[in-house]
Amino acid sequence: MAIKETVFTLDLTREGRHPVVKFRLNDNKVQKITFRLTNNGREIDLEREMGDQFKPVFECIFRDKTFKRDEDRGNWEIKRDTTGKYPLYTFTYFLTDEVINKSGIACYYFALETPEGLRISTPTLKMVIDCDFKEDGKPSENYVSEFEKLLKEAERVKQTIKGLDETLKEVLAGGASITEVIRARENSEGVHFKDLKERLDTENKSINKSIKDINSFIGKREDIRPEETIIGKIKNTDSIIKSVKEIIGANVFDFGAKGDGVTDDSAAFQAAIDSLGVFKYNHPSPSSVIQQGGGRVIIPKPKKFYLIKQPLKYSSSMRFVGEGWNTVIKFVPEAPANLFEGDRSKYASFNSHHDVEFENLNIVGDHTDSTIGNAKNGIDGLNVRYIKVRNCVITGFEVGIKFYRDNTSSYGYFNTIEYCYIYNNILNVYTESNGMQIIGGELSNNHGWRKSDYMLQINSAGCVISGTTIEGSPNVAQVLDRGYGTSYTGNYTETTEGETLGQKPFIEVEINKGFTSMSIQGLYNATISKILKFKNLFAETDPTKSYDVNYGISLNSNGSFVNSIKNQNFKNFLLGWTPRKPNSVDKISLQSTYLFGSPYGISIRKVDNEENNVSQSFQVTSKQVYITALCKVSTGNEKDINFRAWDFGETGAQYGSVVVDYGNGWFLTIISLSSLQKTRGSVAIGLRDKAPVGSTLVVTSVQAYTQGFPIFPPYRESAVKLDRKPRWIEDGYYYKGDVISNSNPIVENKSFVKEWVCIEEGFGKDAGATPVGKFAENIIVYTE
Questions:
Q1: Can you tell me the mean pLDDT for 411-432?
Q2: pLDDT of 762 above 50
Q3: 95 — phi, psi (to 5°)?
Q4: Integer Cα distance of 503 and 498 in angstroms
Q5: 573-706 fold
Q6: Which fold has domain 4-135?
Q7: How is the chain split into domains, by residue range?
Q8: Which of 32, 152, 233, 495 is in Cβ range 3.0-4.6 Å of 2 for a Cys bridge?
């Protein structure tokens, strides 16, 4: 009969605290473990779940990975209680020297198995097996016995530290949570410490005492060489403990943080950061280390939140790790300041910081829906690269995340934002970082700020925005793209509060900033009526100059957009108002004419409450036909544009959409004819019934395409000469720089007017009978 017994209840689904079983080698059937099984706190009807043929087994693994399994029925005692509504089982297992034959720490669990292969196991438990003093052989002399005792003590502490070191490395390498790291506060004997630092300090004192005793003993014995003993193997214990601390990181609680929402924790956070030292290396090789430093700043969930009033300055190779959205850091500075910012006095190399991560944090600034606070940037990254922000919430700042450069360093690239919820900042993300990636997550809800023009601003090359939701109602657009070669893939966008604030485009593009190319693929735009807007195109561009265009915009498979559109044959060319024929990819039997009769566009004026439109009949031989029209509406509201098409016989009507806002009232509309049933139909463009009386629509550059179409900025080629008689077409619309040749000159005194040039944009009929005055000027006079 066993003398020592450990009794507890094992729950199959809940984690609990269970006593550590202590056993000594060579003890046999004097230690037993008795337990009952529950599931989520409730008793289990095992016979209903597993039948009555199940058998219990014991399985354990030692530190050296030795595995033991005991299914000997003779080592088990099973009691079956039938007094309740169903039988309840109590299991008792007797520990034997045959199974438990190694000293140290072992992990074990119990399992129930049936002949049919059904198996269920308990949570993992821990056992400490002490050694048998007799197992090393016959007793030695007294002084040797004392020495061996000291060595055993040193070995015990050494193994404790080594085990802790190995465990932490395994845990952290596997991406463990802070909760798992905190569990390391319990030592091998089951003693709990209030924090990891207390345990390390205790173990450090123990091993230092052992070393002191051993050194004192060795100093009295000339016949004992320290390097031949175990003490020679546990030198530099301070470095062991130091390495363990570096693996664990600097816990802000250990440096005085309270997390009560009242105490200013700024000094505690900065002390934890500074305790990790500074990492520096010779540029460009990170392996050439000048100064070693960096590590993890552990930020456990607070009682309420961490109150921070001063900027927190980081350096390279640091990890700021919280526990999730419950790790709230509130930044309430007394003057405008950034929360996290790089310490410019501690650059790793070449005026830049590298390799910094922010993970599982909830960062809150002092801005509200009604007030603008002092919190500038949540995460400020000047001259940074390889920065990663992951699983974070960032809100209440002027800029949530800002990556930028000051021209003192060429380094500002390869930074990543992953799975973050960034919302209610005046600008959510600003980047000058080349190779920037935004993956997953959400940028949203800037509608609380009436000063928010955009939610994302890109001023760099090669950026990728993938799988991200971008929604809200900024003043201008969701994104301002001033970059080069941005790729948007698999994103979702919508405009909230659209009826109140108006629908905004997805992207505003600054053409005049040297924009190169853009790709939009797999976009689902739930409520946005326009994909692109070219910022201030006509206001900022000199219309009397020609521009080389060497880029294109590709729109592919765009959700609720008008069917599937793909990029087609972008080349370098000069774009002007001269009308273009359809692409040669396929044939359209009747090509669109020169802008419905006028090379400068047709003006459509609403004179009453009826619709006013102009139409063109065409025939198609391909089902994939797109018609585009560039037009300007005087109301500036794209909803007043009515672009529609129908089959011959006025059946199968379809309506077009505005896809690009060029600014200053100019829009590109598109209609897809893929669902028309016949090979001949009509297209019409005009003003809707609800357009105000007196409003005008100027239609230019109507073009037909097959298998997709290019979207390009409507730079006109200035000084396009037209061989026309000197008369003004009232329906024409003219632009500054347009030239009209005089094909019927009148020679007076050996001089004549050769041509006229438009000096101000507008309708021709306002100029009078001849092309002079407000819109055209006689600029060349030849005299013999």
A1: 91
A2: yes
A3: -75, 135
A4: 5
A5: Jelly Rolls (2.60.120)
A6: Immunoglobulin-like (2.60.40)
A7: 4-135, 139-247, 573-706, 721-783
A8: 32
